[in-house]
Amino acid sequence: MGEDNDKSLHIITIIIIVLSILTSSIGLLYETGGKAFNFVNQYGDTVKIYGSGLYARDSYFMAPIFRGTDFAIICVAIPILILALILDIKKRKLKNRLFLMSVISLFTYYSASIAFGVTYNILHLVYIALFSASVFGLIIAISSMDKKQIVENMGEELPLKGIYIFLTFVAITLIVAWLPDIINSLVLGRSLELIEVYTTQITYVLDMGLIAPTAVICLFQLKKRNAMGYVLLELLLTVCSIIGIMLPIQTVFQIVAGISLPIGAIITKMAIFTILALFALYFNIKFFKNMK
Fold first, then answer.
1. Taking a C-beta distance cutoff of 8 angstroms, is the pair 241, 284 a contact?
2. What would the pLDDT profile of 230-260 be if each residue is shown by its tens digit?
3. 272-290 and 160-188 helices cross at what angle (nearest 10)?
4. CA within 13 Å, CB half, 87
5. Contact status, residue 68 vs residue 259, Cβ threshold 8 Å
C-alpha cells in the first residue's frame, strides 16, 4: 500500500462522508409543506406523487423508501464508514483496508441508486459527485491492496462450503425476487407494475446486473483461491449486511406514510433479505477472524 494511494483514498473517503451527510440529512429533514397529488404517467396510469420535501416529485410509494434509506445511511452506514476510515488511518493493516473498501462499495451502491433512481431535484450535482467519489474510491481501495498478501494471510478455517451456498443463494434470490416482475410485464405487454413516474427500476438493474453476477464470479474465484475472490467476498458480505438493516427501516417508513404492504411481499422480500443479511454478518465475522 503506497502512501500516495493511502492519502488519496482517505481524502476521497472524507468527501464521501461529507456528501453522504448532505444527501441523507436533506432528504430526511427537508420539508416544503406540500401535499400529495395524482399524476398521469407516460403509460396512462394514475400515480400518487409525494408532493413534499426533497422527494416532492417522486411517487408516494418510493419517497418513504428514499427517506428510510437516508435514515439508515446517516445513522448506520456513515458511522461505520467513519470507523473504517479511522482504523485505516491509525494502522496500515490489510484487514483495515479490506474493511474500508467494503464499506465504500456500499456507498457506491447507494450513490448509484440515488443518482439514477431519484427524480431530478436540487441535489442532482451532489448525487453525481458522490457517485464519482464512491466509484473512484472503490477502484483506489482495491488497487492499493497487495493481492498476494491477501491469499497468504487467509487461514484455513474460513467456512468455504457455507460461503459457496450463501453466494449461490444470493445470486438466485436476487434473480427470483425481481425477474418475475419483468417477465410478467413483458407477457402482459405493459410497463412494470411499480414503474410509476420512473423510466426503469434501478434496484433491478443493480441487483440482477451487478450484485448477482458478482456473487457468481466471487464463487468461482474463491474455488481457485484467487485474491479477487476474497476481495469480492468481503465486498458482498458488507453490502448484504448493511442492506439487510436498511430494508426493515424502509418498510417502517412506508408503513408510517400509510402505505399498505401485502404480507406476502413483506415475507418474500424483506424477510428473505434480512435472513441473508444475518448470514452475511456471520460470514463477515468469520472472514476477519480467519485472517492472520
1. yes
2. 999 999 999 999 998 998 899 889 989 998 8
3. 150
4. 16
5. no
